[in-house]
């Protein structure tokens, strides 16, 4: 706050120019000069000196300055907390279904360490989320099969296998005698109605590479970026879909059945990707550590 306003505020609160000057750590003569300068600037008298009383304009100004001083202190505190890493905003990009499994419990624990940090989540495929990370719209991404890039830090979290899930009756109709848990080739799966991720997704591209090796054409009956909705369609008996290993807990119930994929050697690599920086805030470091610990527990 400008010194003239501060001197007037302290004088008004102390009801004395002498005490106001002492509080502002200036001489009484200097304080009087600041108040006169302020009155000339505003074009009105702010106080009567003998006896000491505030004019209507002085009362209004003092009240406004009190609010301003409170806001200034709060702002200084908030900035200090940001500098120290206590307060901030983290913008995370990830798959919506993975977020559903990971973050509710993790954020509850994180709040015990960093209660003043707010979160914004962006859901999508790794390719699009990495583009947003490059443009500064995101702070970190939980992505799949991301290649190393000069300006990005890649922290490996987990390596997982891909499975096929479907109601047993659909498999029995297309592949008589095939028992639950037996390995399925992509050629066998191609005879079933499929729901699959969008064409540009990392998982779909991985499947297409394997299908090309086996000379198989996978034509989905529908495409959907949300694993949860794919699972809903499978549980309704409409199709089968491909699920990463860590998402299998969502595939439950009497009709749930899981088939390993024959010949599928490529795995999904789950990584935490952040922009390279020399000064990462403490609250981001805490979150990165907790995400790594969460995936380490999954791996075990």
UniProtKB/TrEMBL annotation:
One function term, GO molecular function aspect: DNA binding
Gene3D superfamilies xrefs: 3.40.190.290, Winged helix-like DNA-binding domain superfamily/Winged helix DNA-binding domain (1.10.10.10)
UniProt-listed SUPFAM superfamilies: Periplasmic binding protein-like II, Winged helix' DNA-binding domain
InterPro entries: HTH-type_LysR_regulators, LysR_HTH_N, LysR_subst-bd, WH-like_DNA-bd_sf, WH_DNA-bd_sf
Swiss-Prot/TrEMBL keywords: DNA-binding, Transcription, Transcription regulation
Cellular component, GO annotation: cytosol
Domain HTH lysR-type: 1-55
PROSITE patterns, alphabetized: HTH_LYSR
PANTHER family: HTH-TYPE TRANSCRIPTIONAL REGULATOR YBHD
Protein name per Swiss-Prot or TrEMBL: DNA-binding transcriptional regulator, LysR family
The species this protein was found in: Acidaminococcus fermentans
């Amino acid at each position: 706050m400008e010194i003239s306003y501060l001197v007037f505020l302290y004088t008004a609160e102390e009801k004395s120019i002498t005490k106001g000057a002492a509080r502002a750590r200036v001489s009484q003569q200097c304080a009087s000069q600041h108040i006169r300068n302020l009155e000339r600037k505003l074009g009105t008298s702010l106080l009567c000196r003998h006896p000491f009383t505030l004019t209507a304009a002085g009362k209004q100004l003092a009240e406004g300055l009190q609010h301003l001083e409170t806001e200034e202190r709060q702002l200084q505190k908030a900035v200090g907390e940001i500098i120290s890493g206590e307060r901030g905003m983290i913008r995370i990009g990830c798959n919506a279904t993975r977020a559903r499994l990971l973050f509710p419990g993790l954020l509850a624990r994180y709040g015990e360490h960093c209660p003043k940090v707010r979160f914004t989540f962006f859901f999508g495929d790794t390719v699009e989320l990495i583009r947003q990370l490059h443009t500064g719209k995101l702070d970190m991404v939980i992505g799949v099969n991301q290649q190393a890039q000069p300006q990005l830090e890649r922290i490996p979290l987990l390596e997982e296998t891909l499975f096929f899930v479907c109601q047993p009756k659909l498999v029995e109709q297309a592949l008589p005698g095939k028992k639950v848990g037996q390995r399925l080739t992509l050629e066998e799966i191609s005879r079933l109605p499929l729901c699959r991720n969008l064409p540009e997704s990392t998982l779909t591209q991985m499947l297409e590479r394997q299908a090309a090796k086996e000379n198989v054409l996978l034509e989905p009956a529908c495409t959907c970026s949300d694993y949860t909705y794919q699972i809903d369609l499978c549980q309704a008996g409409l199709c089968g879909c491909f699920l990463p290993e860590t998402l299998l807990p969502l595939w439950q119930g009497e009709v749930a059945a899981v088939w390993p994929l024959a010949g599928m050697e490529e795995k999904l690599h789950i990584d935490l990707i952040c922009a390279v920086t020399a000064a990462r805030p403490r609250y981001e470091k805490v979150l990165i550590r907790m995400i790594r610990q969460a995936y380490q527990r999954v791996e075990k």
